[in-house]
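Major facilitator superfamily (MFS) profile domain-containing protein structure dump, as promised
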Amino acid sequence: MPSSITMIEMLPSTPEPAALAPSKESSIPLEEKPDESDGSILEHATSGLPEPGAGRVLEARERWNKPRINTWRLAATFFAFINFGMNDASYGALVPYIGADYKLSYLVTSLVFLSPFSGYTVAALFSDRLHRLFGRRGVAFIGPTCRIFAYIVISTHPPYPAVVIILGLAGMGCGLLDAAWNAWIGTMDQQNQLLGLLHGSYGLGATISPLIATTMVTKENLGWWTFYYIMIGVVTLELIAGTAAFWRATGEQYRDNNRADGGDEKGMTRLALKKRVTWICSIFFLTYVGTEVSLGGWIVTFMMRIRHGQPFASGMTATGFWLGLTVGRVSLGFLTGRIGERLAVCIYLFCALGLELIFWLVPQFFVSAVAIALIGFFIGPMFPAGVVAATKLLPQELHVAAIGFSAAVGGAGAAV
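structure tokens r here:
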């Protein structure tokens, strides 16, 4: 008969607590707690937020260089966001010349800001569905294709109503990829830093776009629509790079990695809308994007009309704003990751409000130009911080739908 010691050794060892998978009946997924608690959701928006994918057993988080293809994929997404920035910032630089060309009032000219919002709304409704059908590869192809077609139409100098309508298609192309790349990078390791670089790329494109557009119109005496020749070229490169980098990211792979717990994969947008986090982030993005577009989109007109600046110098203030936003996103993103999203956003907002008072109360061209650049520096990291908070508080399978919807609501801020 074996000894008691031998019998004990033959018994199966008790698994470590960390290896025990939480059952759906006996535990609540970590991502769902903010929605089911009675406390304020803002209490969770701290540095102690659950990490993306928390509650998913034995699921390794991707890194910027692991798997190795991620290096090329990140490069493709950064390049795409450079083009997003060039697209968005060009409106503000070109608005005075579009209005003069078509002899329009400010109210009618402002429709160029409203039209992309309609495209973002369509993208929010279909983004998750397109991901599940075609994967990130399909989205990387469809998004740039929509924008290339829109830019080709605009470059022909069509009637103004056609410009407004076709910008909606460009907005849909941007909206698809905006949700896709934010959701993908938002679940990676060091997401604050990576999202800071991603949105810093947006700021880089927004920095060079007014410079290029203003130079073409004021120095070379070219029509405002000729700027879109450049956009056709760079977005074609984006189409090739993005499709190649995400070629193996198929719809089947996306469905396998983002399965719904209840098995319903067709109602992700509807499910995302039931989460309070989605609506809180939407309101945050609504006010943020509205502020960003108001400053970056109308600063050239303001500096020319109110501060009596020269056209080229006024155009450079837009470049200064977007440059400040770029530097802020790249540099302060690392600070945000250290001190937490809630505290960081409070600090940035306080600094931006102080600078806005200086911009308003000191009616001098130089002071206004410096103040607007510093405002861009401090508001820049707020959008990436909001995306990180959303990815930490929501289940991974809802990231694309929730961020897509929030981005669409943010587009409403630009329209307003």
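The radius of gyration is 23 Å.
lmk if u need the other ones
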